[in-house]
Amino acid sequence: MATLPRIEDFDDPSYDPFKAEEGVFGDLTNIHEHLVKLRAEKGDVVEGSFMSLMGFDWPSDKPAYTLLSYQTVSDVFFDPATFTNECFQQTLGLTFGRTLSAMDAPEHTRYRRLFQKAFLPQNIARWGDEIVEQVVQELIEKFRHRGTADLIEEFTKRYPFEIIYRQLALPEGDGPIFHKLACAQNLVYTPEGLEAGRKLGTYFKALVEERRKHPQDDLASTLINTEVDGEQLPEDVIVSFLRQLINAAGDTTFRGTSVLLTGLLENPDQFEALRDNRDLLPQAIEEGLRWESPVNWTERTAARDVEIGGVSVPAGATIVAVLTAANCDERVFRDGAIFDIFREKTKPPVIFAFGPHMCVGQHLARLEITRAMNALLDRLPNLRLDPDMPRPVIQGAMLRYPKHLYVKFDPA
Ligand code: HEM
Fold this sequence. Notes:
The chain is α+β, with helices and mostly antiparallel strands.
């Protein structure tokens, strides 16, 4: 068996990407209020990047336009010929490399069908039984006897990452280093973000070489051997995808589970209804992800001069699609700023984007959150917010979550 080098930690091992993220992406709270006010004052399409409109010092060498309505955000996702992913080459492309997010058709179409093959429903179901269930149960086992916990630090921030490490059969014990490097990759404008991308790139290149020689029953080996019409993925694309995956699989699902738990625990009547009737879980998950979309905004590049929502936008401009704004647009979601699992069904919320770049992992994410919620409901009787501790506050201007979720339950 070939040996893998150890994953290298940051040059400064005390570096904490979650603290650094506040400096880069801000600790904005009450996002709905800001979005409603901005739309009321300036309309559905506003000149300027979302971050600069929110008062952050945000790098920009191109004109930018921020979209704040359901219609404009959806229209942009469904028109990839006009609104391309070129912008990602100068953002996430700097840390992830040549990955799906930074590609457009026809390259994107070719590689995406290869990746999708690894995420077929039968694979997802198998991961659910063999990996997801084990991980969530093991984590809960560590604190269920105590009767109190911080569900962020002890559960949500850990489980989706642990799942992707096991899907990739990464060495046990290196989780804390992978966790920091994976998350730091979002901080593309910082030296540590670039350091994380570099170190994960070196590691995954060695991993791909090793798994090519010694395939295992893991996702990396599946990606290496996946073939469609005689075509396989080139090595640099696999390495980039692994870098993206270790981030996208963990960072979003962790935040999505955290905001769902916040919505439920802050609304005990809805939580009680779910406890009494687990058939409500799919709609509760959908509502949590709509209410506080874990990916608050994403970007596209205008490939030509174009009009969006009556506003002229020049070719080359960066278009910032604010998912939370689309998902609390009163024209589609009445009282959109309110968490309500019994909300009347209207249009599908823009949680995983629409169009050709719609999230590859959305079915896995839903399965992970379902298993996590069922395990918490089964094993933590009488789960509630801890009245003696601070209440959760969802914050952040890009990727959002509450830093703590202090709870009580009947110890078992
Ligand atoms: C609640 C959890 C998740 C949310 C809210 C989420 C959200 C999103 C969004 C909004 C996009 C589109 C971004 C854009 O087009 O600009 C996306 C793309 C993507 N997501 Fe997710 N995601 C989640 C979980 C996952 C998981 C679990 C995985 C993998 C296991 C994953 C892998 C990806 C990949 C590879 C892409 C790029 C697809 C492409 O460009 O063709 N995501 N996700």
